[in-house]
Amino acid sequence: MLIILASICGFFLGVIAGILWPFLQFFYFLPAILLPRKIFIFFFVSFAFGIFRVDLYESDFPNLPFGEIELIGKVTEEIDKREDYQNVYFETELGIVLVKTDIFRQIYYGDTFLISGELEAPSDEEGFSYKNYLARYGVFSLIKNPKLQLLQPAQPSFFLYLYKLKALLQLRINQLYPEPEAAFVSGLLLGSRKGMSEDISDAFKAVGLTHIVAISGYNISLIILLIFSSFSFVRLKLRVILSIFLITIFILLVGLSAAVVRAAIMGFLTLWALYGGMKSQVYFALLWSMVFMVLFNPYILFYDVGFQLSFASTFGLISFSAVLKKYFPKMNESLALTLSAQILTIPFIAFSFGRISIISPLANLIVAPFIPIAMLLSGLSLICGKIVALPAIFFLGFVLETAQVLAKIPLATLEIKFDSFLFVFSFVVLGRFFLQFYKQELVRAFRPAEFFYKSDRSAFEKHERQ
Q: Going from the N-terminus, what domains does the chain have, and what CATH number goes with each?
């Protein structure tokens, strides 16, 4: 087990070294020399493989003919509609090209267009690399406000009908709910935050409630919580099957993007951890899923904050929900899930965005019990109509009003300089606490044979002395 962990750590460090500071790659594994010889060999090989994978990934970056160009492209992703424009991803002979066009242009998944415009490289802003942000999706060029000529309408396909169904559900939400509740419901049920006003979005960020409307393992965990609490009279096996079925429906509705698939994996692992498997098995499943995702696209390890937060929140859900329930046995299940999901995300948020929400624990304490209810009623209202939407509006409005009121409190959010040292130190502290709490389980996970052998031998010797 230690060899596996050393190999995984070596691979991740190799990927980071390959992305950031290639000229310092040698120094990254110097501390590993202190490891036992056998473990160090596996660490070193994995480290070198991580560097090689980054080099191989970057070798696929295309040399593009920037300037005026004509391309034939097919829409291969869900249309990303914003307030006054839309992002459309086209598969072309030059790879995937991002096209920014006006919001009123009717474009559907599967449509083929002749695109005429100026091909340009994504520009970097201060403190943010838009180029690297798009590179994690395999996008290296964009065209703003091009001339689009439809060559072939979309042919019937599974994803075409799926996205049309999602559009119908969005229309249904807009008919049932006023703003800003409609945008909130879209975030809860469809994972869409594009309709939320800037004021609401800023308030959610200020009080640490953004995870509620982001596609993550947290959303999936809420579905699991709803199923297990609503059907507590049903056998565990049936509740697990029902959870898997509803999670599958949910991820189909919000779209099978990389973030959604990742959230589903996190949700299934959480389900396994909370209601079935040994935690040691779940931890390794979590690590291996992370390895395969990074192996497929190494840039997500460093440039995809959503990827980092998703794994951190899932690890927190699996690890710290039991800790909170032990020390606070009367704590509401939804609140325990919410707080445990946030514990490990705080260092990532502080490091990536330079801010930390002081009022986040209070905000989550107040709204967490109402989120599952709001989510359940909102979902049912799509079928039952206004009779269910009205009570849903009350709970949704309460959450929105709470976020806006708490966001106005002075120093609700602190701007901080959270450097690499503090980032690492925070995980050392959390790791120390984690190791102490799960000491016995980790002993069994990493040295099962030796552990049980010693236990059996000591019991046998004690029996012999008697």
A: 2-59 (no CATH), 67-155 (2.40.50), 164-418 (no CATH), 424-465 (no CATH)
